[in-house]
Task: inverse folding
């Protein structure tokens, strides 16, 4: 199993989950910030030149959430996903889709328009809008879900926590996270997990 990876990207989520599962894997770093994703040989791996990409048995999977769901199912004995057919499984799918579809774009917008893009390409209005969406909709939803439980789905760590905690950590890095105690305590616990530390070295 080979993970095409770049630190400080969504591929760290996959590396974190691989660590939680204790799965041996090879990491090939692709410096997407330096343009390595645009090289023709890598675009044969990932058609858009992004990370992560996970090579398994001669085939390649892309999209961090899809990869994490695949791994949680493949190694079901680790119980990092609820049983299929249950309502809890439905909530698990909800979070696994919500993070990349709704939460990530706000952080990405802020990072691009405050850090990555040249100053003449940055649009402050987009930053303001993204921060408002995060503070009024996304962060309160996370806080409400975690107010009465240790993990995003209750009393057991799952692959959904990998995505949710990564999203909250990204918001903190982007300067978007409030001082909400619930989220601070959750993030503190998640970032102390050995697999998280390994994935973000």
Result:
């Amino acid at each position: 199993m080979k993970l095409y990876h770049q630190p400080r990207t969504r591929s760290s989520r996959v590396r974190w989950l691989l660590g939680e599962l204790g799965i041996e894997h090879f990491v090939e770093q692709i410096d997407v910030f330096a343009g390595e994703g645009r090289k023709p040989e890598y675009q044969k791996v990932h058609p858009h030149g992004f990370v992560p990409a996970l090579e398994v048995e001669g085939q390649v999977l892309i999209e961090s959430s899809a990869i994490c769901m695949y791994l949680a199912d493949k190694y079901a004995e680790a119980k990092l996903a609820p049983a299929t057919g249950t309502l809890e499984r439905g909530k698990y799918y909800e979070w696994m889709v919500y993070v990349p579809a709704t939460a990530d774009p706000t952080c990405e917008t802020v990072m691009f328009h405050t850090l990555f893009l040249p100053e003449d390409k940055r649009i402050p209005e987009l930053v303001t809008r993204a921060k408002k969406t995060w503070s009024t909709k996304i962060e309160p939803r996370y806080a409400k879900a975690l107010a009465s439980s240790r993990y995003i789905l209750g009393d057991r760590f799952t692959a959904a926590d990998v995505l949710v905690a990564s999203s909250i950590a990204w918001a903190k890095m982007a300067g978007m996270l409030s001082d909400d105690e619930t989220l601070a305590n959750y993030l503190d616990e998640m970032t102390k997990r050995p697999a998280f530390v390994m994935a973000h070295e």
Observations:
- The chain has a mean pLDDT of 97.
- DSSP finds eight helices and four strands in the chain.
- The helical segments are 11-21, 40-43, 64-74, 87-116, 124-146, 159-173, 181-191, 194-199.
